Structures are given as structure tokens and as C-alpha cells.
Amino acid sequence: EIVLTQSPGTLSLSPGERATLSCRASQSVSSSFLAWYQQKPGQAPRLLIYGASSRATGIPDRFSGSGSGTDFTLTISRLEPEDFAVYSCQQYGGLSWTFGQGTKVEIK
Amino acid sequence: EVQLLESGGGLVQPGGSLRLSCATSGFTFSSYAMTWVRQAPGKGLEWISAISGSGGSTYYADSVRGRFTISRDNSKNTLYLQVNSLRAEDTAVYYCAIPYLPLNYFDHWGQGTQVTVSS
């Protein structure tokens, strides 16, 4: 099973700042199968990025994804108040899906 | 509009059972594989089971294999998860979600149903 490790666990930033979130895989992941989600308390996850770098429908262009192999990054160029949430990466491989443990982006 | 609505969660004693349901609408249910994903309190998301559109193929995470059974009724557009031999560590919000092939990401999720295992 591929393990996804996200860092940092918590990111304390102010609105307008840039957020850089990391997702590292225990073995190489196909970029096609790497996705990112946003989750707010009491809500289901919301798809942000699929295929490592493609934005989902309706996702603002301040969200971008990059990376390949074992290292992937989600970048939020300028944090808006509604962006403070938990972000999780997800991969598919070997007839199973795995998620990272999440990075919380909190208001500093 | 795609809609997924889970139900059937609740408080159950260790060793007990529940049947979770996910009622769907807004898409051709039988054409899509479906999955269950759970989230324990304060923890990350965990995929636990998937089923093909026909129901002929099922897949499980090691943590639930042998205790949980996924099934579907395509005539009712409903997905199920029979959860048996429940343990405290099964306490979580259980979501149904659609894996969009071939890239296997989840674009639609239900709102979740809470399962609490406690004596």
C-alpha cells in the first residue's frame, strides 16, 4: 500500500499570503492518479485538483497543483478567508485508494 | 444534479452490526463504480470499500476485510455497507463517493453518516 505523508501538519498564515502544502508518497505515484481535496468542519471533502495539476470545475485559479513521482505540491497563491481549512492528497493504485493525513491551514 | 444521501449510522456496542445505505439520484447509477470512505474523529480520510457498477466485483481495505460487506441494488439506485463485528476504532463518519474513472478521483460525496461504537 502506498502511504502518503503530508507536511506540515498545520500551516499558520494570514489572508493574502501564499500557502505551499506537500504530499510525499512512499513509492512512485502516477500523476494521473493524484488528487487534492479541501475539507471544512462538518462538511464532506471538496475536490480541488485531479491528475496532479488539473483544477476541478469551479475551483479558483489561485489553487494550483504540481509534482511527479513521489513529491507533489498544492499551492494557494493568495489565501482568501474561505481557504482556511484542511487539505488532503489522495492517490489511486493497485485497486485501492489512499489519502494523506491532511494539512490544516489556519489563520495566523 | 448528482445527489448522494447516506443513512443508517448510529450508536452501537462493540461487536454489533449496522447497515449503512447511500441513496443516489441524478446519474445512471448502474454505470458507475461506488466507494465508501470513512473519517475517524480528528483523523484523515480512509478508503474502505469499492464495488463495480454491476456489483460483480468488490474491493476492501485490509482494515475491514472479512467484517464489512459492500453491495448495491441498481433497481433502487442505492449502495449499501453491512458493517459487522464493530470495534471502537470503526467509530467514524462514513461517506459514499463516486470514483470517476479512469483517473479515480472523487468528485461527488454524500454528507456522511456517523457511526459510534461504544459500550
Properties at a glance:
heterodimer, A: 108 residues, mainly beta, seven-stranded mixed sheet, three-stranded antiparallel sheet, 10 strands, 0% helix, globular, B: 119 residues, four-stranded antiparallel sheet, 11 strands
Can you walk me through this structure?
The complex is a heterodimer of chains A (108) and B (119). With 108 residues, chain A is mostly beta strands. Helices cover 0% and strands 58% of the residues of chain A. Chain A has strands at residues 4-7, 10-13, 19-29, 34-39, 46-50, 54-55, 63-76, 86-93, 96-99, 103-107. In chain A, the strands form two sheets. In chain A, strands 2, 4, 5, 6, 8, 9 and 10 form a seven-stranded mixed beta sheet that branches. Chain A is globular. The mean pLDDT of chain A is 96. Chain B has strands at 3-7, 10-12, 18-25, 34-39, 45-51, 58-60, 68-73, 78-83, 92-100, 105-109, 113-117. In chain B, strands 2, 4, 5, 6, 9, 10 and 11 form a seven-stranded mixed beta sheet that branches. Chain B has a four-stranded antiparallel beta sheet with strand order 1-3-8-7, with no helix packed on it. In chain B, β5 (45-51) and β6 (58-60) form a beta hairpin. Chain B is globular. Chain B starts with a strand and ends with a strand. The interface between A and B is medium-sized, with 23 and 23 residues.
